[in-house]
User: Which sequence fits this backbone?
């Protein structure tokens, strides 16, 4: 559902402002940034924009999260989202003489696409 609380762009990448989602003749009223100027535009309830690739596409916020990778001597990798779990894995790998390295990685992704445990 199209919402005034979310951010959108057109399918062809134009910036969008949404003014109303309860319009009578056209359900969604707003504007597109076209050649440096805001131009009034209407979309159907589902965000269809008619022509020229102007369907609405939600812009999801980007998030950054960290993961910790333990690299073993056989080059296998164990990945953890919590540092305390990674630390415990390093201790175990060292006891088993399989530890090679550990690294912290930063993941930049759309909200909802982050790693899950």
Assistant:
């Amino acid at each position: 559902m199209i919402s005034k609380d979310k951010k959108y762009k057109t399918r062809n990448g134009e910036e969008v402002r949404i003014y109303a989602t309860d319009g009578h003749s056209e359900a969604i009223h707003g504007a597109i940034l076209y050649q440096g100027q805001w131009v009034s535009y209407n979309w159907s309830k589902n965000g269809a924009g008619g022509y020229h690739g102007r369907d609405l596409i939600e812009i999801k916020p980007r998030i950054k999260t960290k993961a910790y990778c333990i690299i073993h001597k056989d080059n296998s990798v164990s990945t953890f989202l919590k540092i305390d779990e990674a630390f415990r894995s390093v201790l175990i790998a060292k006891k088993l003489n399989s530890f090679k390295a550990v690294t912290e990685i930063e993941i930049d992704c759309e909200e909802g696409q982050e790693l899950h445990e």
Observations:
- Residues 83-95 form the longest helix (13 residues).
